[in-house]
Amino acid sequence: TFVSEENADAAIVKYGNPQLCIDAMSKIGCYGYYVRENRYNLFADYETLPEHVCSVNVRHFRDALERRGAAWKDMIKKELPAQLNSHPTFNQRRENLGVNDFNIDISPSHSALTGEWARLAKFTDRRIADRMKQDYGKKRRKFYTRSIDRVKAWEDSDRTRPPEEMRPVIDAYMNLMRVQEAERLCAQTAGRTDNDNAKAYPLFMSGQIKLNACDSGGIGLIRRAIAIKADYTAPGMNLIGEFCRQTGMKAELEAHRAAAPEAIQRAKDTVGRTAVLRRRDRLSPVPDNGDMKAHIDRITGLGQGNVIEIYAVRKTIGDDFFTDAFVIKFKPRLDTEIADELLFDIFCYLDAFPSKNHRSVFAYNKATAFAVKKISKSRVYKA
Question: How far apart are CA 93 and CA 187, in angstroms?
Fold first, then answer.
C-alpha cells in the first residue's frame, strides 16, 4: 500500500494537480479531529432516522471547522509518522508532491462543484439511511435515551451516590456530548474518595478528555490511572502515543515508544486474560474475607430484581495475579439490552470496590456455566 500510494503521488505530479490533492487530504485530516473532539449526537435531534444523515453531519463539521480549523491545521503540520506505517503520512505525501501549504476551506467556489456535492450527499444519505435504519431505535436507546435517564436520575437526586458507582453517570454525560460537565464530574468523583479503585476511571476519562482537547495535562492523569489499574495500560498507552505523534512531541514520543511495548505486553499477559472464563482455566473457590455478603446485596440491588443466581470463582492467571470472576444469571427472557446494562452496572461496582483484588463479571451462559460448575459451592446466591 505504501508503494502504491507513492506511485499514485508520482502520477498526480505528472498528470494532475498536487495542490488540490493535498487540500483534499487536509480536509479528511480535519474531519478526523472533528470526530474525536466534537462527535455530533444524531440521536439527540432525531427520534427516527432522518433521510439526510450525511448532510446533517456535514453541516456540523462545517461549524466545527470554522471554530477549530486553525488549530487542526497546525496539528496536521506537526503530525509525526506512526510507528508502523502501511501508508505514507500526510506530511510525507505533501513533501513528495512538493506542496508547502494547504487550504482547509470547504466552501465551494464553483457552481458545478456545488451541484456535484449535492448529488454526492444525496447518494450518501440514501446509503447511510439504508444501513442504519434497521437498528436505529436500539442504538438511540443505548447511546442517548438511556443516558438521558441516567443523567436525569443523577441530577434529580441528592448527588451522594457512592464514587464506586459513578462510572455509568460519567459515561452518560459523555454519550450526550456534555464533555465539560463530564470532566467536572470526574474531578468531583476522584476528589471525594480515598478509594484509589474508584478514582481510576475518573482519572482516565479526565485524561482522555484533555488529550482530545489538545491539552498535554491529560498524559499525567492517564498515567495515574494506569498506576492504579493495569486494565488501563493498553488503551492509556495508545492514547498517549497518538497524542504525542499528532502534536509533534518527538522526544516524548520516542521515550513513550521505548517503554510502551513491554508495559502493554505485561498487561495483556495478566488483565488481558480476565475477559474469558472457561472450564480449562485454573479455577478455585473465592475465599470469603467478609465482603461477599456486601457484594451479593449490592449486585442484587443493581440487578433490579432480575438476578436469580450469582456464582463466584477465582481464576489464577500467573504466580502473582488472579481475578475473582462473578457470573450473573438473570431471569429467563430478560431483554438482552437491559441485561447488558445491568451487567455493566454490576461490573462498575465490583471494578471500583476498595480492594487490591482484581474482579471481572460474566453473564451466565453455556460456557461460563460449564466453568463455574467445575467448582464445588461456586454458587453464592440463589433467589
Answer: 42
Distance CA 296, CA 293 (A): 5
d(CA 9, CA 96): 7
Lowest average pLDDT, out of 38-47, 225-234, 256-265, goes to: 38-47
Query: 348 burial class (0-12, 13-18, 19+ CB within 10 angstroms)?
Result: buried
- Which residue carries 476519562 as its cell? 205
- Integer Cα distance of 302 and 347 in angstroms: 10
Contact 282, 316 (CB under 8 A): yes
Measured at the alpha carbon of residue 139, what is the angle toward residues 137 and 144, in degrees to the nearest 5? Answer: 95
Q: What is the pLDDT of residue 38?
A: 67
Q: How many whole angstroms separate alpha carbon 242 and alpha carbon 329? A: 40
Please answer whether residues 171 and 140 qualify as being in contact, where contact means their C-beta atoms are separated by less than 8 angstroms.
no
CA nearest neighbour of 64 among 115, 101, 27, 89: 27
- Give pLDDT, residue 376: 93
Which residue is associated with the grid cell 488472579?
322
- Overall size of the chain counted in residues: 383
239 contacts 222 by C-beta, under 8 angstroms: yes
| DSSP 8-state class, residue 65 | H
Q: Cβ-count burial of 304 within 10 angstroms (0-12 exposed, 13-18 middle, 19+ buried)?
A: exposed
Q: How confident is the model at residue 128 (pLDDT cuts 50, 70, 90)?
A: confident
Average pLDDT over residues 37-49: 84
Instruction: State which amino acid sits at residue 13.
Output: V
- The two beta strands, 307-318 and 282-285, are antiparallel
Looking at every residue in the chain, the average pLDDT score rounds to: 91
Residue 123 identity (one-letter amino acid): F
55 vs 11: CA distance, rounded Å = 32
Matching residue, cell 499477559: 269
Position 106 scores a pLDDT of 80
11-25, 299-313, 361-375: which has the minimum mean pLDDT?
11-25
3-class DSSP state of 222:
helix
